[in-house]
Amino acid sequence: MERLPIPATKSNAIRLKDELSLAEDGRQLLDQKKDILINHINLLAGRADRVRKELNEALMASYEQLKLSLIESGRSRVEAAGLAVDARVNVTIRERSLMGVVLPLVNIEKPSFRPEYSLTDTTRQMDKVRQIILSATETIAELAEVEVGLSRLMEETKRTLKRINALTYIYIPIYEATLKSIEERLEEKERESLFQLKRVKGKSKGSATI
Asked: Other C-beta atoms within 10 Å of 142: how many?
């Protein structure tokens, strides 16, 4: 096992123990962060599925009404009505932080519904298309918010897992192996010192007897 190239001293052993304790604490905190991120990813993934379904249903409904409009009014009138519509909406984006990850909060301010086209040249199907699309803007904003949040959370989870793996499989084992090696060498030095001390005492007793 790879070890740190440092002398086998008591001060280094104490320092390594402190650093190893910090590394273990860091790994525990990263594990907690990973769990929180994964839990939130699961929540957002479920929400994303629901929002996609709502958006698909809204778009399908608008397509059906658009088909009826084309049949009843013809393409030229439908296109003219579409060009007359002001499709602008006010979008406000705020941010919040989760475990250091910046997540967007998107808010849509829709204009009140009022047909900008001539009522005499259009049908109620055109109104329905307009209403459905206008309502769908909120769903589109929510989906964008959720998908951006999911992407950022997944990237942060990957980075967190890399740090956990680096601590678990590289740094902590190296520190543990180095500390063990230093402690073994210190114990060996202590045994040698005791042995030398016993020899010196033995020689001292022999000299005193003579």
From this structure: 19
- Phi, psi dihedrals of residue 188, rounded to the nearest 5°: -65, -45
Query: What average pLDDT does the segment 113-126 reach?
Result: 57
Q: Any residues with CB less than 8 A from the CB of 69 and at least 6 apart, and which?
A: 78, 122, 123, 125, 126, 129
Cα separation, 38 vs 46, in Å, equals: 12
Say if domain 10-198 classifies as CATH 1.10.287.3240.
Answer: yes
The whole model's pTM is what? 0.76
Contact present, 113 and 130 (Cβ < 8 Å): yes
Q: Dump pLDDT digits (tens) for 177-187.
A: 999 999 999 98
Nearest residue to 41 (alpha-carbon basis) of 124, 161, 121:
161
Spans of all domains in the chain = 10-198
Q: Which amino acid, one-letter code, is at 72?
A: E
